[in-house]
Amino acid sequence: SWSIFEDRILYQLLVFLQPPSRHSFKLELYGGTHLPERCSNIRVVLECTCLRKLGNIPCFVHPSTNSETAQHSPLLQNLCTGSYLDVEEIACWVQNLVQTAWEHLPQWQHWQLTVLPSSRSCRLLLSGPFDMQLSALLVFAVEQGSP
């Protein structure tokens, strides 16, 4: 969605997170009665690939005697606390990713990017020519029932 707020345009974007290959997200309920409100209740589950025909791709859940022990992807090691997604780590990772990518966009050389402090989302402020300002709020979500 977008709206005009005082002297700037505010964009609010819902960003759906997808699990890496051979992983899935499992939303855990509070006492089985209602949906979780925080990302800390989204468990990352390794999927067994033993019965799938994936060539030489090892199964992370059931490693063979010739392969290394079960392992998570490096991305999940950085974005999870234990087996659960950590929204603060995700927000920090996305903020750094956006800031790094911004430096490689020459078409935006007349705009300044400021990453605003936020621990549970990614808040950006773009300041451009003629005192124009754009503000973006990226909110993270997972789809219930997604693989």
pLDDT averaged over residues: 79
C-alpha-based Rg, rounded: 19 Å
Helix share bin: 10-25%
How would you describe the shape? elongated
From the helix content, strand content and strand pairing, which structural class follows?
alpha+beta
Beta-strand percent range:
25-35%
How far is the first residue's CA from the last residue's CA?
26 Å
Order of helices and strands: EEEEHEEHEEE
Major sheet: arrangement of strands:
1-2-9-8-7
> Major sheet: size, sense and barrel closure?
5 strands, mixed
Strands, total number: 9
Domain unit count: 1
Protein name: IPIL1 protein
Organism: Dicaeum eximium
Protein model, in words:
The chain has one domain (2-142). The protein is 15% helix and 32% strand. The protein has two helices and nine strands; from the N terminus they run E-E-E-E-H-E-E-H-E-E-E. The strands form three sheets. A five-stranded mixed beta sheet has the order 1-2-9-8-7. This is IPIL1 protein.
Question: What topology emerges from the helices and strands here?
Answer:
Layout: E1 2-5, E2 8-16, E3 23-27, E4 42-46, H1 74-79, E5 80-81, E6 84-85, H2 87-102, E7 112-116, E8 122-127, E9 133-141
Parallel strand pairs: 2-9
Antiparallel strand pairs: 1-2, 3-4, 5-6, 7-8, 8-9
Organism: Dicaeum eximium
Protein name: IPIL1 protein
List keywords for this structure.
147 residues, 5-stranded mixed β-sheet, alpha+beta, elongated, 32% strand, 2 helices, 9 strands, two-stranded antiparallel ribbon, 15% helix
Briefly summarize what is shown.
The protein contains two helices and nine strands, in the order ββββαββαβββ. The protein is α+β, with helices and mostly antiparallel strands.
